[in-house]
């Protein structure tokens, strides 16, 4: 009964904690927009089946996402380890010893060698009473670390999906630029061949022929640059999505030409942005974790109490080890009070506080970064839509100019150089329009990403991640 009372008292004492109060100023900001819901699978709104397939491949094969999940598993394993410190530990043990005492041993009165056997086995109970909440705070710190890892996984998933979508748009843009330059190069080649024929019969001079050749070489160089740009984007896209090395080495990508995206998006900063950004929640969990660890460090200043117990058998003869007469038990306690550690404990507490300070500064910086990203994304979306309309109108104007220049050149009303200028301007307008189209698409992705990509706080987040992780190709595990 006394032992039971002692254990219950220990558990009650273990409810206290030395962690400091965590004061976090509320992030006050002016909301400029009503909350807009973003679907979890927002990329499907682009209505591109090939893009959907690439995202699915990335969620299955991407190495960074797998590493984020493994980090989460490590945090969960550490939580299990720290949970065990809250509970008594029970071990089974068995020992067998045989000793020979010398004739001259102080306790040997026989004048001959003596032999002694010792056998014991039983259950050993050990428990350090959590007087100051050290183990409870350590467990809570690990729990916050697990939560942070979950948010890190969500943030990594959003980042990977966003990168896939943007790299897909950039690749599609590069493919279209290649096609424009290729068609233009073919047209310039035909023009050059015609000019060379006219030059050979003396219809035009060497100056006009050299002009035509220079234009052709310029377009060829631009076409080669477009190929390199396409390969650069394609490399990034393959790293994000590919599941086979041959896919990385040899396969091109299909794409669907992007058209105007009519989805309703936020125009200002949402009032729920703090809940929609996984990186903010991760930073807050890590700050909370470090606050608990300050309490763990402080507990080293105070005494500790350990309890031990043994229940088993011991004897000098193996044959009678488990007989009634061999039963044995013991109960003990150990009290330890630190006196002088040359500043070790003080500096450990100081280090824990400094780690908390770093976590606090990181949290504040994460908030500022999040709001800056929202501001930039909203501004970029606005300007990209304006540029899209500007370059669309420019393309229509340059197309009309080129059509009129073609007619006038055929009629001999304008010289070759004016016609080539009109064609060059049309080429540049086509390229600019394609770039503006895909910049607008990427700006939409940036807004969605800045607002958390459809992330919502959920009590079932861990289960949702487990379901998501089932898609992974983890065949490398034994």
UniProtKB/TrEMBL annotation:
Cellular component GO terms, alphabetical: plasma membrane
Entry keyword annotation includes Endoplasmic reticulum: no
Keyword Lipoprotein: yes
Membrane topology of the entry: Lipid-anchor
Cross-referenced InterPro entries: MdtP/NodT-like, OMP_efflux
Localisation: Cell membrane
Keyword terms: Lipoprotein, Membrane, Palmitate, Transmembrane, Transmembrane beta strand
Annotated GO MF terms: efflux transmembrane transporter activity
Domain of life: Bacteria
Family of this protein: Belongs to the outer membrane factor (OMF) (TC 1.B.17) family.
Name of the protein: RND transporter
Organism: Campylobacter vulpis
């Amino acid at each position: 009964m006394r032992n039971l009372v002692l254990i219950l008292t220990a558990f009650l004492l273990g409810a206290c904690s030395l962690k400091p109060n965590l004061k976090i100023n509320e992030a006050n900001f002016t909301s400029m927009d009503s909350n807009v819901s973003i679907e979890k699978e927002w990329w499907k709104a682009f209505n591109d089946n090939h893009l959907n397939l690439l995202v699915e491949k990335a969620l299955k094969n991407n190495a960074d996402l797998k590493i984020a999940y493994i980090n989460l598993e490590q945090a969960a394993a550490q939580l299990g380890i720290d949970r065990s410190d809250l509970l008594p530990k029970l071990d089974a043990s068995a020992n067998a010893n045989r000793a020979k005492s010398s004739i001259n041993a102080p306790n040997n009165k026989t004048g001959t060698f003596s032999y002694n056997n010792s056998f014991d086995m039983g259950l050993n109970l050990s428990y350090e009473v959590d007087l100051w909440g050290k183990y409870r705070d350590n467990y809570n710190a690990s729990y916050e670390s697990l939560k942070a890892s979950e948010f890190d996984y969500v943030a990594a998933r959003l980042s990977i999906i966003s990168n896939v979508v943007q790299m897909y748009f950039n690749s599609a843009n590069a493919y279209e630029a290649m096609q424009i330059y290729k068609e233009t190069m073919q047209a310039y080649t035909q023009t050059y061949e015609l000019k060379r024929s006219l030059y050979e019969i003396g219809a035009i001079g060497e100056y006009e022929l050299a002009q035509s050749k220079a234009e052709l070489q310029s377009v060829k160089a631009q076409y080669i640059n477009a190929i390199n740009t396409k390969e650069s984007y394609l490399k990034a896209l393959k790293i994000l999505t590919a599941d086979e090395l041959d896919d990385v080495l040899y396969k091109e990508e299909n794409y669907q030409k992007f058209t105007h995206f009519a989805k309703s998006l936020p125009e200002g900063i949402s009032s729920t942005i703090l809940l929609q950004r996984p990186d903010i929640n991760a930073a807050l969990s890590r700050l909370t974790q470090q606050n608990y660890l300050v309490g763990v460090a402080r507990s080293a200043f105070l005494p500790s109490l350990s309890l031990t117990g043994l229940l088993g058998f011991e004897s000098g003869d193996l044959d009678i080890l488990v007989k009634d007469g061999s039963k044995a038990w013991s109960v003990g306690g150990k009290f330890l009070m630190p006196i002088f550690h040359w500043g070790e404990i003080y500096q450990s507490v100081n280090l824990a506080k400094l780690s908390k300070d770093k976590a606090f500064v990181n949290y504040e910086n994460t908030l500022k970064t999040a709001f800056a990203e929202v501001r930039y994304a909203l501004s970029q979306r606005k300007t990209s839509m304006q540029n899209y309309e500007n370059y669309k109108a420019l393309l229509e104007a340059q197309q009309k100019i080129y059509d009129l220049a073609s007619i006038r050149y055929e009629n001999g009303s304008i010289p070759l150089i004016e016609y080539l200028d009109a064609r060059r301007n049309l080429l540049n307008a086509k390229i600019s329009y394609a770039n503006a189209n895909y910049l607008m698409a990427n700006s939409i992705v940036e807004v969605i990403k800045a607002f958390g990509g459809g992330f919502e706080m959920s009590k079932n987040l861990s289960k949702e991640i487990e379901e998501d992780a089932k898609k992974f190709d983890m065949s490398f595990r034994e």
